[in-house]
Amino acid sequence: MHMLSESDVLRVDECCKLILAIITIRAVISAPQKTTFGSVLNFTAATSRQLFAFARDDGFPFRNWIAKVDARGGSSQNALRVCCAFVILVTLIVLGSTVALQAIISLGTLALAFTYELSILCLIWRRLCGAPLPPYAWSLGRFGLPINILGSIYGFWLMFFSVIPPSYPVTAANFNWSPVMFAGVLGFTTVYYVLVARKVYKGPVVVCQPYGS
C-alpha cells in the first residue's frame, strides 16, 4: 500500500481548506441574494393586499377589475398581477439608465417618509390642540407628544437626504429626479381625486363603521 508523504498530506489539507473557503464565500455571497428574493416576495404580496384594499374602497383607477376576488383561491389575483408587472417594468429601467432606477428608489423612500410624516403631524396637531384622538388599545401617555416630535424630525431628515443629489457638481446625469417625480405623482393623484375619487371614495373608516358599531 502506498503511503502518503508529508507533502501529500499538506496538499490534501490545503485543498480541503480551499474548497471550504470557496463554499463559505459562495454561501456568504448568496445569502443577501436569497434574503432579497424573499423580501421581494413578501413586499409584493403585502403591496398587492394594500392595492386590493384601496381599490375595493373605490380609491384607485380600474378598481372593479383590481378588486375582483378569485373564486378558487379566495384572493385578488388581479392586484397581484398588477404589482408583479409594475416590479418587472421598474427593474427593466436599469437596462436603460441607472440614474432613473436610483431616482425611483429614492422616490419610494420619499413617498414612504411623506406618508409617515403626514400621520405623525396629524397626531401632533391633535395633541397640541386638545382634539380627541381616535379610539386606541394602547397609548404612550405623556411620552406620546415628545416621541411624535422626534419621529417628525427624523421624517424630515429622511426626506431631505432622499432628495439631495448623490454627487456634485449637479448635472442632468447625476441629478436626483425623485422630487420631480414625486411632485408629478402628487399632482396626478390630486387631479384624480378632485375629478373622480372624491365622488366615490369614502374610506375604510366610513365603510367599516357600521360593522364595528
Automatic annotation (TrEMBL):
Pfam families: AA_permease_2. GO terms for cellular component: membrane. Gene3D superfamilies: Amino acid/polyamine transporter I. The chain crosses the membrane at residues 78-97, 103-125, 145-164, 176-195. It is a multi-pass membrane protein. It comes from the Eukaryota. It is found in: Membrane. Keywords: Membrane, Transmembrane, Transmembrane helix, Transport. InterPro entries: AA/rel_permease1. The keyword Transmembrane helix applies. This is Amino acid permease/ SLC12A domain-containing protein. GO terms for molecular function: transmembrane transporter activity. The lineage of its organism: Eukaryota, Fungi, Dikarya, Ascomycota, Pezizomycotina.
